[in-house]
Structure formats: structure tokens, C-alpha cells
Write a structure and sequence with these properties.
Aminopeptidase, six-stranded mixed β-sheet, alpha+beta, globular, single chain, 6 strands, 3 helices
């Protein structure tokens, strides 16, 4: 983990996001060395905080931090996470590939993961 942020409203945790080193597999999909990338991970927002812009603000904070360090943000998201995918695409992220994950989704199928590169 390189950095993390937690969105709160008083004592209530609204959401969370982390910046971490990307794996070599994701760097290979992006086509850049891992040392030039930073992975946005663990972005979540509580059910009570959804549709209030919390996820967008957390994502923006992570992207700004990446830019401040001269790093290109990347991420992976399970293909069935349509709300997250819409958020990323509205924020200017570009899907650069889809692949089978090495884990199973809640319904027992092999998860499909979409790889994204953030705005430059």
C-alpha cells in the first residue's frame, strides 16, 4: 500500500480507497513498466453513502495523488460491477482489456476482470 483515504461523516465511515503497486500482469496489459503505474484498489462506499458522489470524490483524490507523483493510475474491476464500471468510464477511465481472473465470483463462475487505465 502506498496511500489510503477514508471518507467519513462524523463517526460514520462512508468509503475507502487505496493506492498500491500494480502487479506485473496488469503492467503488461497496460504496456508500461510497473514502476510508472499505481493501482487504485479497495474502492468501496457504504450502502448508506451511495449516490452522493462519495466514490467519485475518492477516485478523484486517488487520481490526483497519482498525478502528483508522476504515475499513471490503473485498476481492475470485476466485469459484473456495472455501477463501478459506469463510474470509471464517466471519470475518463479507458478499458484496455478483459481477462479471466484467478478467483471465482459469488455465483461460482470464474470471474472476468476488466483492466482500466486512468486519465492522463
Amino acid at each position: 500500500m502506498l496511500a489510503a483515504w477514508v471518507a467519513v461523516d462524523g463517526p460514520e465511515v462512508l468509503g475507502h480507497v487505496v493506492l498500491a503497486r500494480p502487479g506485473e500482469a496488469l503492467a503488461s496489459v497496460v504496456g508500461l513498466p510497473a514502476r510508472r503505474l499505481v493501482s487504485v484498489a479497495r474502492l468501496f462506499v457504504s450502502a448508506a453513502a451511495r449516490r452522493r458522489g462519495t466514490a467519485a470524490k475518492l477516485l478523484e483524490r486517488a487520481v490526483d495523488e497519482a498525478a502528483a507523483h508522476g504515475l499513471r493510475p490503473v485498476l481492475e474491476v470485476e466485469a459484473g460491477a456495472t455501477a463501478a464500471i459506469k463510474l470509471y468510464e464517466r471519470a475518463g477511465w479507458r478499458c484496455i482489456g478483459t481477462s479471466a481472473a484467478d478467483w471465482t465470483a459469488a455465483d461460482g463462475r470464474i470471474a472476468q476482470v476488466r483492466s482500466y487505465v486512468g486519465p492522463s
